[in-house]
Each structure stands twice: as C-alpha cells, then as structure tokens.
Specification:
heterotetramer, A: about 100 residues, alpha/beta, 5-stranded mixed beta sheet, 3 helices, globular, C: about 120 residues, alpha+beta, 5-stranded antiparallel beta sheet, 4 helices, about 30% strand, binds adenosine-5'-diphosphate
Chain lengths: ~100, ~100, ~120, ~120
Amino acid sequence: MHITISPLNDGAIDVSLQGEIDADNCAQIGEHLLTPGVESDSTVALDLSELSFIDSSGISELLRVRDAFDSAGGSLVIVNPSPAVRRVLEITGVLSTFGLS
Amino acid sequence: MHITISPLNDGAIDVSLQGEIDADNCAQIGEHLLTPGVESDSTVALDLSELSFIDSSGISELLRVRDAFDSAGGSLVIVNPSPAVRRVLEITGVLSTFGLS
Amino acid sequence: MNRLAIELPPSTKLLAPTRSMINAWLCSGSAADDRWGLIATELIANAISFTSEDGMILVVMEQKSDNIELQVSDFGPGFDPTEVRMAAADSVRGRGLGLVKALTTQFEAVREGNKTTIIVSHPLP
Amino acid sequence: MNRLAIELPPSTKLLAPTRSMINAWLCSGSAADDRWGLIATELIANAISFTSEDGMILVVMEQKSDNIELQVSDFGPGFDPTEVRMAAADSVRGRGLGLVKALTTQFEAVREGNKTTIIVSHPLP
Ligand SMILES: Nc1ncnc2c1ncn2[C@@H]1O[C@H](COP(=O)(O)OP(=O)(O)O)[C@@H](O)[C@H]1O
Ligand SMILES: Nc1ncnc2c1ncn2[C@@H]1O[C@H](COP(=O)(O)OP(=O)(O)O)[C@@H](O)[C@H]1O
C-alpha cells in the first residue's frame, strides 16, 4: 500500500491510498492519518480510485479512522472507490457511512 | 515486464526493460525488438537498471536478440544492469558478450 | 487448471502473494475472477488468528466441473458456535465471514480431529 | 518460518507469484535472500517442460537448522544423463542448472518411482 497526503489550504486534506490493503498492512492507515501531524478536526477526502484490493480488516480500519475524525469534529469521506473496493463497501453495508451512495 | 523503446536521431535506440523476466514473458523481448518497426542494423543500448529479475530463459532471449542485431550489422549492449541482473550475467559468463566488464 | 495447494506458516505477509498465486492460477485456466483473492484472504486471515506461530495452514483450490472450490484448514480450537453467532450479530465484527458468504454459493465448516476446514464453492464465471 | 509447500499445475504464469510467495516466506522468517526466487524459477521451469498439461509440480521449502532446503518434484521421464552432460557442455543450453549449482552448496537429483526431485540447499544468509 502507498499513501499520499496532500493538505489543502482550508483545513481540508486529500488523501489517496494506492495498491492493496489487507490484515498485513491495514494498520498503516491509522498510523499515517491519526498522528499529531494531521489535525484531527480535518475534512478528509479519501481517494480510493487506485486501491485495487481491500478486505474486511481494511474496512474495519477505515471505520476506526473515520470515527476518530468524526469524534474530534472532523470528517472522512471516500471519493472514487475502484470497482473492487466499491463492491466490498457495498457488501459490508458501509457505503453511506463513508458518504457514498 | 515493461519495455520502453526510444529511437534516437542517429540510428541508435535506447531500450529499457523494467520489472521481471522469466520463461513466461521472455519472448516479448524479441517480439518488441525484432520487428519491422525496429531497424535490424540499429545500435541498441539496453538499459537494465530497472529490471529486478532475470532467469536463464531471459538470458537466452537476450543472446538471441543480440545475435540477430549483430548479424544484420547492428549491435546490442547492456547498460546499467541492476545488481540482481548483473549477478546472473556474471554467473552465466555473458557479461563481455553484452559489452560489460 | 487442475489444483493449487499451498501449505503456509501463519504469517499475514503471505496474504498478498497467495492472492497473486490464486489469480495467476485462475488466469492460467482462463477463469479470472477477483472474488477468490478476497475469499482466500478472509479465510486465511481467520485461520492465522487461530494458529500458533509454529503451526501451519492449508489452502486447496480446485476446479470441480463448473465450480471452483476453496478449502482453508487450520489446526486451531475450531468454531465456537456462540462466538460465531455473536460476531455475526455484532456491528464491528463478523464482516469477514459475511463477505465470504456473500461471494460464494456454498459454505461449510468441517471439524475432523484437530483440523478445522472451511469449504466454499462458487460457479466459474 | 517452518515450511512452505506448493502443489501447482505446469503453467509459467505461476513462476512470478511463486517467487513472491517464496520471498514473503523468507522475509517472514527475516531471511530475505534473493537467490531462492531464481533457483525456484529455474527448477520449476524445467519441471514444467517435462510435465504434461494435466500434471502437477511440487515445491517444498524448509528451514533445516541453519540451511534453507528447496525440493522441486515432477512426474516426468526423469533425468537422462547423456542429455544433462550434453546440455552442460553446450554453449546455448545448460544455463538453468548451471545457475542453480552456482547458487547452492548442495545439489541432488533423486528418482523415486515416477517422481523426479531436485533437492538443493544453502546456508541462511
Ligand atoms: N478458523 C477459525 N477457527 C475458529 N473460529 C473461527 C475461524 N474463523 C472464524 N471463526 C469465528 O467466526 C467469527 C466470525 O469471523 P469473521 O466473520 O471473520 O469476523 P471477526 O474475525 O471480525 O470476528 C470469529 O469471531 C470467530 O469466532
Ligand atoms: N525436471 C527435469 N526432468 C528431466 N530432465 C531435466 C529436468 N531438469 C533438467 N533436466 C535436464 O537437464 C538439462 C539441463 O537443464 P538446464 O540447465 O535447465 O538447461 P536447458 O533446459 O537449457 O537444457 C536439460 O536439457 C534436461 O535434459
């Protein structure tokens, strides 16, 4: 997995995840986003167009990170999920949790 | 494997191979270089700095392609082999055949 | 296409290469279908969490007429029905087997001696 | 690190994923060493060329004290000593086993029934 974090000037952050996420590397999402370097009340747009694979442990980690931003007054939404990722979000019933429909 | 072919203006061609070459894909080298689109008397510099893996079938294919250029009045030399590729060229004793030492 | 069988130690580092292996195997029989990488990842990750460090996990994939069958075995304690029910009812657990069941037409858990095997199958695309 | 065993059909499409698998397995035991991907590729490619389409190949990798041992088995005709000698003496053949022998400290070919196995080993880095 590769993660790209681009802070915008209005407190919003564009984040892009590339590659594959499974139980081996899913903890990296929180490690990169829930750190003192990233304001916890940020508005995060998570681009998953180049994420080719995610499993249930990746979904759990995304939910955990989303909840952390949420409870600090920030937010996290997913934009542009790849077809494979959208399918997993759909089956696990969390599309709307991440601002998708 | 990914192959990039850059014709220079003096009949020389820079070619770069990226990724991994084994028995499954080695034939692609000849398919891309021994075609009507590439002059067979060209001077080819084959950059292998981004080739991370090669096996004996890849070496055989490189020798076959080199011989084809050679007998048509062209040439093929290897530049910048990655450490893994240099090791295989060394053990198989073909470093000098490809203009390396 | 025949059969692909892998015996591996319980390391999550092997999840991604196992997916590549399964996808190449499916491709070599011209049956590319990205569901199996996900199903195998979920089942192997579960097996890993019930396997001690020096244990092993078995993965067997086979084409049986028009179906692909996948078996993942571990030598852990086996399914605890109460746990499975609780996980399925929980909002933060149970997503792994939930995905597997949604992506397959047959799902079975078998216990033989100290071996726990999940067997799933689904028609070829 | 234990053992990694793979039973695969004779498809060259499985060479690259098998290398990833082997490298992840070595890494999971913190013994990354790029020689094994090459050795396995050479031995499996040979096994493939002596296996019919519906046949299979066995790959077993194991840590034995301070050595890594790799066994690759096929069910083809077995080694023809004259052929092997001719290949080794030829300028365009014999590079596969030449590489394998250069990268290992022990090399053995065993024939048991209709099973041909190459066993190689080399110390951990
Ligand atoms: N290989 C296994 N051995 C024993 N129990 C298992 C195994 N795989 C799954 N389970 C049980 O099934 C439950 C549901 O698994 P799963 O859907 O993957 O969700 P989670 O792991 O989040 O609980 C687990 O909590 C566990 O009790
Ligand atoms: N699995 C095998 N079964 C039978 N013979 C084999 C096997 N592997 C290698 N050989 C023999 O060993 C020879 C040398 O193999 P190798 O060094 O890989 O070079 P090449 O395949 O180019 O001849 C082969 O030509 C073949 O006769």
